[in-house]
Amino acid sequence: MIALTNGNAPVQAAPDTSVLNQQNFSTDVIYQIVTDRFLDGNSANNPTGAAFSPGCQNLRVYCGGDWAGIIAKINDNYFTDLGISALWISQPVENIYAVINYSGVNNTAYHGYWARDFKKTNPAFGSMTEFQNLIQAAHAKNIKIIIDFAPNHTSPASETNPSFAENGRFYNNGVLMGSYTGDTSGYFHHNGGSNFATIEDGIYRNLYDLADFNHNNNTVDSYFKESIKLWLNMGIDGIRVDAVKHMPFGWQKSWMSYIYNYKPVFTFGEWFLGVNEISPENYHFANDSGMSLLDFEFGQTARQVFRDNTANMYDLDAMINRTAAAYTQIADQVTFIDNHDMDRFHTTGASARRLEQALAFTLTSRGVPAIYYGTEQYMTGNGDPDNRAMMTSFNRTSTAYQLTKKLALLRKTNPALAYGTTQQRWLNNDVYIYERKFGNNVTVIAINRGSAPVSISGLATSLPAGTYGDVLSGLLNGNSISASANGGVSTFTLGAGAVGVWQYTASASAPAIGNIGPDMGKAGNVVTIDGRGFGAAKGTVFFDTTAVTGATIVSWEDTQIKVVVPAIAAKKYQVKIRSSAGSDSNSYANYNVLSGDQVTVRFVVSGATTVFGENVYLAGNVAELGGWESAKAIGPMYNQVLHAYPTWYYDVSVPANTTLQYKYFKKNGQAIVWQSGNNRTFTTPTSGTATVHINW
Ligand code: NOJ
Ligand code: NOJ
Ligand code: CA
Ligand code: CA
After folding, report:
1. For residues 204-231, average pLDDT
2. How many contiguous H segments (helices) and E segments (strands) does the chain have?
3. Pocket of ligand 2 (CB under 6 A)
């Protein structure tokens, strides 16, 4: 067999990656837009007076960007030519109109994070009809629309000064629901601003001065279910959830199960991590909430290596290995090198090549890459709001633009990038050569961030014998390589600052699962399985050993299967497929079957005294409470903000309309002391939220 491939002309046709697939974004490249800062397509909707800055001289107020501007760029193929197949736009909902003066400086809600009505649009971005036009225009070009969504809070408010800004007021499609001051319905938390010392503090106190929602309130809970339903009905393809570290995890899981039950779309949350920050709670959230996360560990490390020179290629490789082990669905986490909350990657005077290397790394790594608007135009700007300047140019010939285009195409054509494993193949302080592999598909990427050429000898790969042209056609000074029959690559020189990409695609010899979405659901929900080599004829889908065949398989194509979750016990499953020819795929781990519809219950236990180092946990008979396994129990519970020690509390997603058996236990190291007596019972509501409070 001759295995000669030309990097510029992939041997396989592009697989189906249409907007119809709202679960799997692994083959997509996301482009993040601050709507107000992209393009003013309709000056008639621009705010007036102090709220608006003509020419965007003042980056803290509105500058005029809108959905009409985004539509114009969709229609003139700016995104298509860049290889972009998903746009993440600012929160589309109506925001406060007030201009807030902080220490003599005017600020507005141009960023979209100061909501006042989650069921209306921000008129500065456009009307509901224009939003519909945006979805239609995007879908017509096979581009998905992801909305930012911030259910943690409304807007800046002062407990003691109701006339400050709009006092956090929120509306239900125009009907006033409540204000921060005089909040007799308990829609908000009133515990002051967070010092961020603990996760509990960040959840139940205000994020800065933002009026913080109480999601354990029935009205708030149903308001956010109804409002996300409205946007799902508008045809959105994905959701970026703001500030997930600052909302109760139980509420978010039950909200996700509501979304997945109604109209599942790819959903990823923002859990900010600083430089060198590694958070087990972050991993746990990504693995258990049903939501993916923005991969800050990836982003921060890439910035250290390629931008700040505070880490090297060993650190980059360690991050890749660490995250692959920590996140159960690594291909679903969203990677990036900068965003609207960080200094832009590129700085004035810095080498453009470092940005290009970081982009190449992101576009060829596991996860769903998100590119911040203007990166392809080498925009600079440190800190907020300088990192949110008006888009400077729409030039399609920049190196970064061309690079993105070529690698976005490769993500669509070679599934090794979207779904593959990552293996380090050659490493020193400045050189990282890694291989992505999925089935018989291989991509090898070599990056030299150093200022001297490096002779690469002894490089082993999975490439079949042949000569491989650089997929980037030398754009970043890569050249071709030759592999021998065992995949060994003849010694070559990787130029100073060079990036080379070599790829091989072949049809599948066995079925291989690359992605499953959503990764959580109840019996009866439909799950989308993407991969290669499933064959044309219906075979079998296994949830552990439970075989699903026939009518409960909704559709079966060579690269995609849709299957109904069978009525099986709630727990995490290994999903595997068997082709009609009897060939088995890999097992895709951790599909989470829930007990049924979910509601949020606040569990509170008083009088639970502990010694230093000892914590209280909650366990019970349903999977959502760990099925009596102490290692899967809920906790450590909280005891500082809403209730104080020795009272402990936690908001938990549990099956609706179910009589639960539960108990608390104290854990100190490995030692566990259960509550004495019979199991306690609690019947959960059919909808809404509840609280159950007992004494230890
Ligand atoms: C995180 C967002 O990305 C940031 O820009 C915003 O100000 C806060 N959350 C509050 O919504
Ligand atoms: C597990 C048992 O199944 C349950 O009934 C009991 O309450 C807890 N362990 C604590 O002992
Ligand atoms: Ca405008
Ligand atoms: Ca909160």
Report:
1. 98
2. 12, 42
3. 628, 663, 674, 679
